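Protein modeling request. Please complete all fields; requests missing the sequence field cannot be processed.
Requester role: graduate student
Desired output: 3D structure, token encoding
Chains: 1
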Amino acid sequence: MSLDKKHSIYENKHKAEFKNIKSSTTNGDGRQKSRAVCRVCDRMYRDPKLLPCLHTFCADCVRQLEPFAVRGVNGNLSPEDDTARRDSVTVLCPECDSEVDLPSSGIEGLTTDHLALDEVFAETLLINNSVLCDLCSDGDAGKRCEVCCVNLCDFCSQAHRRQNRTSSHSIQNLQDLKSQGRLTRPVLCSLHPGQELRLFCEPCDLTVCLECAATFHRDHHCSPAHEVISHHGDRIRDLVVRTLRPRLSRLEETLRRVDVSQEALQVRTDTLAGEIRAFARSYATAVEMHCRSLLRSLEDLRLQRKNQLHLQKAQLQQAVSDVRGGVDFAERLLTCGSDAEILNAKGVTMRRLMNLVESGFDSHPMTVAHDNASSICFLPRESAGEVEGFPVVGVIHAKVVDPSKCTIQGEGVERGHEGQRGEFTLVCRDSSGEQMGRGGDPVLVSIVHKERKGCTVEAVVVDNGDGTYCVSYTPVEPGVYSVWVCVKAQHVQGSPFVLNVKRKFRRHSGIFHCCSFCSSGGAKEARCGCTGTMPGGFQGCGHGHKGHPGKSHWSCCGSVVEVSECILHNLGAVSPRGHLKTVEL
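Delivered output (585 residues):
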């Protein structure tokens, strides 16, 4: 199969996924900006270099960036890698402010952005409206070979068609290609001028030309670029389509919700301010002073929460910017880049995309933003102490319950008895560990038998109004239960708990004595719960024989503890009817 046919199959199979994605970028004011212009010098790219954050700048512009930091020794790196990292310099990207490490070899070690060179070539063609022929350098080029990626004048175009090696190549008019946005340039080897990078060395993860493969990579496995582009391109595409594109949508949606929450916060604070003023007008000078104090506290709280949301928004915007930058570049690389261009930028692109995947924004901003506004409330009847000697009421409450800080008090959450009422207390606390001081939080308690399916125990939750909740239950069957205690649909500290429910307390039916033989007046048939026997046919136990406890015990079960629960049901084979039933002699 020919090179151009394989390339066409690859394009038709994979690049259709991005046909609805806009390739243009815009400035912050909405105006479209050219991809052929460097964002630092505001001129067309000259030797464009691709930073690890996937932003491109002129090589000279990168050299002018002031070092942000010099990497020190990293104990997790090998000695070779550590030496390289120690010599590397960290700069801030002028586009996204990311900290990027420059290679120890300098600016020349950065990946050349051939996509930017294509943009410069297309932009130059649009400005000058003419391009010299790449073969003869004399006539104006009006055509372009899509396989060789060279610009041809009419004479060279005819010669190109007459050669056996290039007679089947597709030659298009430059004007038609310009209108379709498909202008590309061949990626040439920096060591062998004129040699195009058509091979990919798998061990070195590097695109090479034929001469490089025959000399520097002689013993390496080098494959044609068009044979490996599908595998490596799909890896980038999977990261973009399956992970980063959905994450970008979620981040943008969360950012939108934060904006809504900021408005809700302002509305909430304005509403509370009105309530506070209405409440304060019914009082004299002392109450007016208290009102102003409350308003100051509310404003401080609003500013505090506003700063929190502002920081959260900035973090989200940065995350969105980083992901969008990586996604846009990767999509443009896969959509507009040739095989060699994709493979040439594959390494830096994969590293950036993997960093974006691993540095996921794992918090839940919407929940935080919602609590930020709804957790602020005004309690008009709560005592606020005295102002100028007058008792006043009305405080601002801004605590938010933290399920991970909530605790359980009482043994009823771990031990219980069949048919008896058990109790324990839930203490709700905020993130600092302080008791909430008020009720109203959604509390859910579920008690389920671990072994018997469908066996549950109803739990009654009573809100004490001070941040504590009394939980009571009455189990009807013994066994091991699982107790779920949740606040705001989240487990509290230690939940789920294991509750052991014992059977009803069993009282002894016999007598507590030294031995059955003595207590029965020497009856041979008398038998005791210790299951001991005496020589000579006596079934009753005596002092000192094998099996005698050596101390006083209950005649019904053999327990040596006078104040205890009867363990007759644990004896199994011994029938309670055969045990001694006597009265004190």
